[in-house]
């Protein structure tokens, strides 16, 4: 079991000009040379037989397990994975990182320290640009809205950039994800159930089961509990999309199932009184221009 310290970055669209300016400025600043680095760090391909995935921070030692290079870049620059454009030949290998925090630093600075690793170990070169891409926008659908406001917790921050701990458990019975601060979701037994979810968190989660970036345009700012049904057929399609999102190479016969499947999320989200609209949006992305396939010696 691992704990992940991560920052979730808000999506950027034409309909959110102020957010666009803020995120563009943040990315521009973060692309400068990082000021903080790990005291020591090693980067190695994840063992083929290992299913471990997550981050453990235990004082100064930091251990990442099972993340793709694309995911490390997203964490380092505090953007969504869908905002990192990387060549296909770099997208399927997972890596483990063992590092040590320098004296006087804190776990909250891990993301900034991650910026130096890809540049040093993978000779990473990237640039920022705006791209217009198809997205799913979560909007209010046909009433009634079937989101139950969660019980209030004065210690829980609604700020999307707040640090959260994540624990993932996956087995034959389904998937359970603890997002920290009382937020969690499960997908098992034909049901997706979320606890203490913001709509930004819902968008970020659904993106892992979709072929499009997902953005929240509901205007809802609270934390909610909800559930929706998922048929066995839809669960299979969602599992395939989640595997592709994670960089897993699947057999051709499995991929063919997506040709006529449509997107189960469109119908599922309607159960909550919400709607997924297909739109075009200008998104600030990080484009990887060049990188080594394997890291240099540690």
Question: Can you give me a brief rundown of this structure?
Answer:
The chain has 298 residues and is α+β, with helices and mostly antiparallel strands.
Radius of gyration: 19 Å
Structural class: alpha+beta
- Domains counted in the coordinates: how many? 2
Distance between the termini: 26 Å
**Helical segment count:** 8
Extract low-pLDDT stretches. Answer: 1-26, 156-166
> Which strands sit side by side, in order, in the main sheet?
1-9-10-11-12-14-8
User: Which series of helices and strands comes N to C?
Assistant: EHEEEHEEHHEEEEEEHEEHHHE
Shape: globular
The main β sheet shows up as:
7 strands, antiparallel
Rounded average pLDDT: 80
Helix content: 10-25%
Strand content: 25-35%
Count every beta strand, where a strand is a DSSP E run of 2 or more residues. 15
């Amino acid at each position: 079991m691992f704990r992940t310290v991560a920052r979730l970055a808000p999506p950027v669209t034409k309909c959110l000009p102020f957010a666009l300016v803020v995120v563009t400025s943040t990315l521009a600043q973060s692309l400068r040379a990082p000021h903080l680095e790990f005291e020591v760090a090693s980067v190695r391909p994840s063992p083929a037989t290992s299913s471990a995935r997550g981050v453990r921070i235990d004082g100064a030692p930091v251990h990442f397990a099972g993340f793709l290079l694309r995911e490390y870049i997203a964490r380092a620059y505090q953007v969504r994975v869908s905002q990192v454009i990387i060549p296909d030949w770099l997208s399927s290998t997972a890596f483990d990182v063992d590092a040590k925090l320098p004296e006087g630093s804190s776990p909250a600075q891990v993301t900034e320290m991650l910026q130096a690793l890809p540049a040093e170990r993978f000779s990473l070169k990237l640039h920022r640009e705006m791209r217009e891409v198809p997205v799913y926008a979560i909007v209010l659908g046909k009433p009634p809205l079937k989101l139950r406001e969660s019980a209030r917790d004065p210690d829980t921050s609604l700020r999307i950039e707040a640090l959260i701990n994540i624990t993932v458990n996956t087995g034959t019975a389904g998937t359970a994800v603890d997002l920290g601060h009382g937020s969690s979701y499960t997908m098992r037994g034909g049901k997706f159930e979320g606890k203490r979810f913001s709509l930004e968190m819902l968008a970020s989660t659904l993106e892992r089961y979709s072929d499009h970036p997902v953005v929240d345009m509901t205007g809802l700012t609270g934390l909610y509990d909800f559930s929706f049904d998922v048929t066995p057929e839809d669960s299979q399609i969602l599992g395939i999309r989640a595997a592709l999102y994670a960089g897993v190479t699947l057999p051709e016969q499995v991929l063919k199932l997506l040709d006529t499947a449509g997107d189960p999320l469109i119908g599922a989200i309607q159960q909550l009184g919400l709607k997924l609209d297909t739109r075009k949006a200008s998104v600030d992305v990080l484009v990887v221009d060049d990188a080594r396939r394997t890291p240099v010696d540690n």
